[in-house]
From TrEMBL:
Its main location: Golgi. Residues 1-53 are annotated as: Disordered. It comes from the Eukaryota. It is a peripheral membrane protein. InterPro entries: GPP34-like (IPR008628), GPP34-like_sf (IPR038261). Gene3D superfamilies: yeast vps74-n-term truncation variant domain like (1.10.3630.10). One of its GO terms (biological process) is Golgi to plasma membrane protein transport. It holds the Pfam family GPP34. This is Golgi phosphoprotein 3. The keyword Transmembrane helix does not apply. Residues 1-11 have a biased composition (Polar residues). GO terms for molecular function: phosphatidylinositol-4-phosphate binding.
Length: 248
C-alpha cells in the first residue's frame, strides 16, 4: 500500500514538474519573441536615425512622386521652414482662428482678399528643394517646346522604399486595431496621404488580398468620429481637429 502511494506521489510530482517546465518554456518563448520584436524596432529606429529624417509634408510629397520623375501652444522654432512660417502666422493672429480656418488660409482656399497673405507660397517646390538638400531628389531641366521646366526626379529610392514599407506595415503586419495605440506620426501620415490622394501609391505594389485588407483598415480609420477620438484619454486633440477638417 505504501509503495502504491509512493508511486502515485512520484507520478503527481513528475506531472507537476512537466507542467512547470512547459510553462517555463512558454514563458521563455514569449520573452524571446518580445525581445526579438524590440530588437527589430530598435533596428528600424537605428536605420531611421542613420538615414535622412523627413518631415510629414516631405513624406506626403515623396509618396506622390513617381520613381521616374488653433492655437499655438509653443512658438519655438521647429527647424522646418514651412512649419515655422505657419506658426508665425498663428502666433501673430488675434483673435485666434479655428483649425478649419487655418487650413483654408494657409492653403489659399479663402475668399477673403484681406487674408490672402496667410497663404504658404510654392509649397511643393519648397518641399522638393528640401528633399534635394537631403539627397532624396535631384534637380534637372527639361525642355517643353518653348520653355525649360525644372523637375526633381527621385535619386534615393532607398528612402522612398523605407517610407512605403512603413505605410504598408502600419495597416498590415503592425496593425494594432486601436487608433489610440497607433504611433501618432504614422496615423497623421495616413490621413494626410489619403487627403492628398497619394496613399494608394504606397499600396499599389501589394498583392490583391493585401491591398484589399490595407484599404479596409484605412477605411476603418476614415470612418472614425474625430470628436469621439479627441475625447479619449491621452488623445492628441489637434491631430483629430485636423482630421475633422479634412474629412468633413
Amino acid at each position: 500500500m505504501s509503495s502504491v502511494s509512493q508511486r502515485s506521489s512520484g507520478l503527481v510530482q513528475r506531472r507537476t514538474e512537466a507542467s512547470r517546465s512547459a510553462a517555463a518554456g512558454r514563458e521563455r518563448a514569449a520573452d524571446e519573441e518580445e525581445a526579438e520584436s524590440r530588437r527589430a524596432e530598435e533596428e528600424d529606429a537605428e536605420g531611421d536615425s542613420k538615414e535622412t529624417r523627413l518631415t510629414l509634408m516631405e513624406e506626403v510629397l515623396l509618396l506622390g512622386l513617381k520613381d521616374r520623375e488653433v492655437m499655438c501652444k509653443s512658438d519655438a522654432p521647429t527647424g522646418d521652414m514651412l512649419l515655422d512660417e505657419a506658426l508665425k502666422h498663428i502666433k501673430e493672429t488675434q483673435p485666434p482662428e479655428t483649425v478649419q480656418s487655418w487650413i483654408e488660409l494657409l492653403s489659399g482656399e479663402t475668399w477673403n482678399p484681406l487674408k490672402l497673405h496667410y497663404q504658404l507660397r510654392n509649397v511643393r517646390e519648397r518641399l522638393a528643394k528640401n528633399l534635394v538638400e537631403k539627397g532624396v531628389l535631384t534637380t534637372e531641366k527639361q525642355n517643353f517646346l518653348l520653355f525649360d521646366m525644372t523637375t526633381h526626379p527621385l535619386t534615393n529610392n532607398t528612402v522612398k522604399q523605407r517610407l512605403v514599407k512603413k505605410v504598408q506595415e502600419s495597416v498590415l503586419d503592425k496593425w494594432v486595431n486601436e487608433p489610440q495605440r497607433m504611433d501618432k506620426r504614422v496615423l497623421s501620415l495616413l490621413f494626410l496621404a489619403h487627403s492628398s490622394d497619394v496613399l494608394e501609391n504606397a499600396f499599389a505594389p501589394l498583392l490583391d488580398d493585401q491591398y484589399d485588407l490595407a484599404m479596409k483598415r484605412v477605411r476603418l480609420l476614415l470612418d472614425l468620429d474625430p470628436e469621439v477620438e479627441a475625447s479619449r484619454t491621452g488623445a492628441n486633440e489637434l491631430l483629430w481637429a485636423v482630421v475633422a477638417a479634412f474629412t468633413k
